[in-house]
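Recall from the previous chapter that SMILES is a line notation for molecules. Here it describes flavin mononucleotide.
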Amino acid sequence: MKKQIRKLCKFFVALVVVFGITACSGSSGGAKETDNKENKEQTQIDWKSEDTLVIYFSRTGEQYKVGTIDHGNTAIVAETIGETVDAELYEILPADDHYPMTYDELTDVAKQEQEDNARPAYENTVPDLSKYNTIFIGAPVWWGDWPMIMYTFFEENAKALKDKTLIPFSTHEGSGLSGFDQKLRSACPDSTVRDGLAIQGSDAQNDPDAVKQEVEAWISSLGSE
Ligand SMILES: Cc1cc2nc3c(=O)[nH]c(=O)nc-3n(C[C@H](O)[C@H](O)[C@H](O)COP(=O)(O)O)c2cc1C
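With both inputs in hand, we obtain:
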Protein backbone atom coordinates (compact mmCIF):
# COMPACT_ATOMS: atom_id res chain seq x y z
CA MET A 1 0.00 0.00 0.00
CA LYS A 2 2.80 2.37 1.07
CA LYS A 3 4.67 1.44 -2.09
CA GLN A 4 1.64 2.27 -4.27
CA ILE A 5 1.20 5.65 -2.60
CA ARG A 6 4.92 6.40 -3.12
CA LYS A 7 4.60 5.42 -6.79
CA LEU A 8 1.56 7.67 -7.27
CA CYS A 9 3.34 10.56 -5.53
CA LYS A 10 6.37 10.20 -7.80
CA PHE A 11 4.20 10.12 -10.85
CA PHE A 12 2.24 13.15 -9.73
CA VAL A 13 5.46 15.09 -9.15
CA ALA A 14 6.62 14.09 -12.63
CA LEU A 15 3.40 15.42 -14.14
CA VAL A 16 3.75 18.72 -12.29
CA VAL A 17 7.33 19.01 -13.63
CA VAL A 18 6.09 18.32 -17.11
CA PHE A 19 3.31 20.83 -17.15
CA GLY A 20 5.69 23.47 -15.80
CA ILE A 21 8.26 22.77 -18.47
CA THR A 22 5.75 22.56 -21.29
CA ALA A 23 4.23 25.86 -20.23
CA CYS A 24 7.71 27.48 -20.28
CA SER A 25 8.63 26.18 -23.69
CA GLY A 26 5.24 27.26 -25.03
CA SER A 27 5.74 30.85 -23.96
CA SER A 28 9.28 31.16 -25.31
CA GLY A 29 9.02 29.12 -28.48
CA GLY A 30 6.91 31.33 -30.77
CA ALA A 31 9.62 31.97 -33.34
CA LYS A 32 10.53 28.33 -33.48
CA GLU A 33 6.89 27.39 -34.08
CA THR A 34 6.92 29.67 -37.11
CA ASP A 35 10.15 28.10 -38.31
CA ASN A 36 8.57 24.73 -38.00
CA LYS A 37 5.53 25.76 -40.06
CA GLU A 38 7.85 27.03 -42.76
CA ASN A 39 9.85 23.83 -42.63
CA LYS A 40 6.65 21.86 -43.00
CA GLU A 41 5.84 23.58 -46.27
CA GLN A 42 9.35 23.14 -47.58
CA THR A 43 9.90 19.52 -46.71
CA GLN A 44 8.70 16.74 -48.91
CA ILE A 45 9.19 13.44 -47.18
CA ASP A 46 9.76 10.32 -49.19
CA TRP A 47 8.28 7.53 -47.07
CA LYS A 48 8.65 3.88 -47.89
CA SER A 49 12.23 4.31 -48.91
CA GLU A 50 15.63 3.37 -47.63
CA ASP A 51 16.05 7.04 -46.70
CA THR A 52 14.04 6.67 -43.50
CA LEU A 53 15.23 5.37 -40.13
CA VAL A 54 13.43 4.96 -36.79
CA ILE A 55 15.62 5.50 -33.71
CA TYR A 56 14.26 4.78 -30.23
CA PHE A 57 15.05 4.19 -26.59
CA SER A 58 12.70 2.06 -24.50
CA ARG A 59 12.67 0.04 -21.28
CA THR A 60 11.13 -3.24 -20.26
CA GLY A 61 10.69 -4.34 -16.64
CA GLU A 62 8.24 -2.64 -14.31
CA GLN A 63 6.55 0.37 -15.88
CA TYR A 64 3.82 2.71 -14.69
CA LYS A 65 0.24 1.49 -15.31
CA VAL A 66 1.23 -1.63 -17.27
CA GLY A 67 3.06 -3.70 -14.66
CA THR A 68 6.08 -5.75 -15.71
CA ILE A 69 6.50 -5.81 -19.48
CA ASP A 70 8.91 -7.63 -21.76
CA HIS A 71 8.29 -5.38 -24.77
CA GLY A 72 8.78 -1.67 -24.11
CA ASN A 73 5.97 0.79 -24.85
CA THR A 74 8.15 3.01 -27.02
CA ALA A 75 9.53 -0.04 -28.81
CA ILE A 76 5.98 -0.98 -29.81
CA VAL A 77 5.34 2.49 -31.23
CA ALA A 78 8.73 2.53 -32.98
CA GLU A 79 7.98 -0.81 -34.63
CA THR A 80 4.55 0.43 -35.71
CA ILE A 81 6.14 3.49 -37.33
CA GLY A 82 8.78 1.26 -38.95
CA GLU A 83 6.08 -0.98 -40.45
CA THR A 84 4.01 1.98 -41.61
CA VAL A 85 6.82 3.72 -43.49
CA ASP A 86 8.80 0.56 -44.24
CA ALA A 87 11.87 1.82 -42.40
CA GLU A 88 14.68 0.18 -40.50
CA LEU A 89 14.93 0.49 -36.71
CA TYR A 90 17.81 1.34 -34.44
CA GLU A 91 17.48 0.93 -30.66
CA ILE A 92 19.65 2.98 -28.32
CA LEU A 93 20.82 0.61 -25.57
CA PRO A 94 22.37 1.89 -22.34
CA ALA A 95 25.98 0.87 -21.70
CA ASP A 96 26.22 -1.86 -19.04
CA ASP A 97 22.43 -1.86 -18.97
CA HIS A 98 22.67 0.24 -15.84
CA TYR A 99 18.96 1.10 -15.48
CA PRO A 100 17.03 -0.78 -12.75
CA MET A 101 14.09 -2.99 -13.69
CA THR A 102 11.78 -1.78 -10.92
CA TYR A 103 9.80 1.40 -11.42
CA ASP A 104 10.72 3.04 -8.10
CA GLU A 105 14.44 2.50 -8.56
CA LEU A 106 14.32 3.56 -12.19
CA THR A 107 12.55 6.83 -11.35
CA ASP A 108 15.24 7.57 -8.74
CA VAL A 109 18.12 6.90 -11.16
CA ALA A 110 16.44 8.93 -13.91
CA LYS A 111 15.79 11.86 -11.56
CA GLN A 112 19.41 11.84 -10.41
CA GLU A 113 20.65 11.80 -14.02
CA GLN A 114 18.42 14.77 -14.79
CA GLU A 115 19.57 16.72 -11.75
CA ASP A 116 23.21 16.00 -12.65
CA ASN A 117 22.59 16.93 -16.30
CA ALA A 118 24.29 13.59 -16.92
CA ARG A 119 25.19 12.14 -20.31
CA PRO A 120 24.78 8.37 -19.77
CA ALA A 121 26.62 6.28 -22.35
CA TYR A 122 24.93 4.01 -24.84
CA GLU A 123 26.60 0.86 -25.97
CA ASN A 124 25.76 0.10 -29.56
CA THR A 125 27.27 1.30 -32.77
CA VAL A 126 25.19 3.91 -34.54
CA PRO A 127 24.27 3.07 -38.13
CA ASP A 128 25.67 5.25 -40.90
CA LEU A 129 23.26 8.18 -40.59
CA SER A 130 24.42 9.69 -43.87
CA LYS A 131 22.25 7.06 -45.64
CA TYR A 132 19.06 8.59 -44.21
CA ASN A 133 17.24 11.87 -44.83
CA THR A 134 14.31 11.36 -42.50
CA ILE A 135 14.70 10.08 -38.97
CA PHE A 136 11.90 9.35 -36.53
CA ILE A 137 13.26 9.55 -33.02
CA GLY A 138 11.39 8.51 -29.89
CA ALA A 139 11.65 7.74 -26.20
CA PRO A 140 9.53 7.55 -23.06
CA VAL A 141 8.95 10.81 -21.23
CA TRP A 142 11.10 10.73 -18.09
CA TRP A 143 10.41 13.44 -15.55
CA GLY A 144 8.92 15.71 -18.19
CA ASP A 145 11.84 15.45 -20.57
CA TRP A 146 13.76 13.21 -22.93
CA PRO A 147 15.75 10.61 -20.92
CA MET A 148 19.26 12.03 -20.50
CA ILE A 149 20.74 9.22 -22.61
CA MET A 150 18.93 10.79 -25.57
CA TYR A 151 20.88 14.02 -25.08
CA THR A 152 24.06 11.93 -25.18
CA PHE A 153 22.87 10.60 -28.53
CA PHE A 154 21.86 14.03 -29.90
CA GLU A 155 25.16 15.62 -28.91
CA GLU A 156 27.40 12.81 -30.08
CA ASN A 157 25.60 12.67 -33.43
CA ALA A 158 24.81 16.36 -33.94
CA LYS A 159 27.05 16.59 -37.00
CA ALA A 160 25.57 13.49 -38.60
CA LEU A 161 22.03 14.75 -37.90
CA LYS A 162 22.72 18.11 -39.54
CA ASP A 163 20.32 18.88 -42.42
CA LYS A 164 18.18 15.81 -41.68
CA THR A 165 14.45 15.90 -41.07
CA LEU A 166 13.84 14.70 -37.52
CA ILE A 167 10.39 13.61 -36.35
CA PRO A 168 10.01 13.10 -32.59
CA PHE A 169 7.63 10.77 -30.79
CA SER A 170 7.04 9.96 -27.15
CA THR A 171 5.26 7.48 -24.99
CA HIS A 172 4.01 8.76 -21.65
CA GLU A 173 1.31 8.38 -19.02
CA GLY A 174 -0.21 11.84 -19.05
CA SER A 175 2.45 14.33 -20.12
CA GLY A 176 2.02 14.03 -23.88
CA LEU A 177 4.98 15.13 -25.98
CA SER A 178 6.45 17.13 -23.09
CA GLY A 179 8.14 19.60 -25.43
CA PHE A 180 10.20 16.85 -27.11
CA ASP A 181 10.04 18.80 -30.38
CA GLN A 182 11.29 22.11 -28.95
CA LYS A 183 14.01 20.35 -26.99
CA LEU A 184 15.10 18.42 -30.05
CA ARG A 185 15.26 21.69 -32.01
CA SER A 186 17.52 23.18 -29.36
CA ALA A 187 19.74 20.08 -29.25
CA CYS A 188 19.96 19.80 -33.06
CA PRO A 189 19.61 23.37 -34.38
CA ASP A 190 20.85 22.43 -37.85
CA SER A 191 18.15 19.82 -38.39
CA THR A 192 14.53 20.33 -39.41
CA VAL A 193 12.22 19.11 -36.66
CA ARG A 194 8.66 18.20 -37.63
CA ASP A 195 5.49 17.84 -35.53
CA GLY A 196 5.73 15.00 -33.07
CA LEU A 197 3.40 12.26 -31.88
CA ALA A 198 2.62 11.35 -28.26
CA ILE A 199 1.16 7.94 -27.47
CA GLN A 200 0.07 6.77 -24.05
CA GLY A 201 2.33 3.86 -23.04
CA SER A 202 -0.54 1.77 -21.72
CA ASP A 203 -2.35 2.16 -25.07
CA ALA A 204 0.74 0.91 -26.92
CA GLN A 205 0.75 -2.11 -24.64
CA ASN A 206 -3.00 -2.82 -24.51
CA ASP A 207 -4.48 -1.47 -27.75
CA PRO A 208 -1.90 -1.79 -30.54
CA ASP A 209 -4.56 -1.65 -33.28
CA ALA A 210 -5.76 1.77 -32.13
CA VAL A 211 -2.14 2.92 -31.90
CA LYS A 212 -1.50 1.71 -35.44
CA GLN A 213 -4.42 3.81 -36.68
CA GLU A 214 -3.14 6.82 -34.78
CA VAL A 215 0.36 6.38 -36.22
CA GLU A 216 -1.00 6.04 -39.76
CA ALA A 217 -3.15 9.17 -39.41
CA TRP A 218 -0.20 11.13 -38.00
CA ILE A 219 2.13 10.03 -40.76
CA SER A 220 -0.32 11.02 -43.45
CA SER A 221 -0.84 14.37 -41.71
CA LEU A 222 2.90 15.03 -41.93
CA GLY A 223 2.50 15.09 -45.69
CA SER A 224 4.20 12.81 -48.15
CA GLU A 225 4.02 11.45 -51.68
C1 LIG B 1 11.87 7.34 -14.86
C2 LIG B 1 10.46 7.55 -15.35
C3 LIG B 1 9.94 8.83 -15.38
C4 LIG B 1 8.68 9.04 -15.93
N1 LIG B 1 8.20 10.32 -16.03
C5 LIG B 1 7.02 10.54 -16.64
C6 LIG B 1 6.54 11.86 -16.82
O1 LIG B 1 7.15 12.85 -16.43
N2 LIG B 1 5.35 12.01 -17.45
C7 LIG B 1 4.63 10.96 -17.91
O2 LIG B 1 3.57 11.16 -18.50
N3 LIG B 1 5.07 9.68 -17.80
C8 LIG B 1 6.25 9.45 -17.17
N4 LIG B 1 6.72 8.17 -17.05
C9 LIG B 1 5.96 7.07 -17.67
C10 LIG B 1 6.62 6.63 -19.01
O3 LIG B 1 6.83 7.74 -19.86
C11 LIG B 1 5.73 5.60 -19.75
O4 LIG B 1 5.41 4.54 -18.92
C12 LIG B 1 6.41 5.13 -21.03
O5 LIG B 1 5.42 4.63 -21.90
C13 LIG B 1 7.45 4.05 -20.80
O6 LIG B 1 7.95 3.62 -22.05
P1 LIG B 1 9.00 2.47 -22.30
O7 LIG B 1 8.35 1.15 -21.92
O8 LIG B 1 9.29 2.54 -23.75
O9 LIG B 1 10.21 2.75 -21.47
C14 LIG B 1 7.93 7.93 -16.44
C15 LIG B 1 8.46 6.64 -16.34
C16 LIG B 1 9.71 6.44 -15.80
C17 LIG B 1 10.27 5.05 -15.74
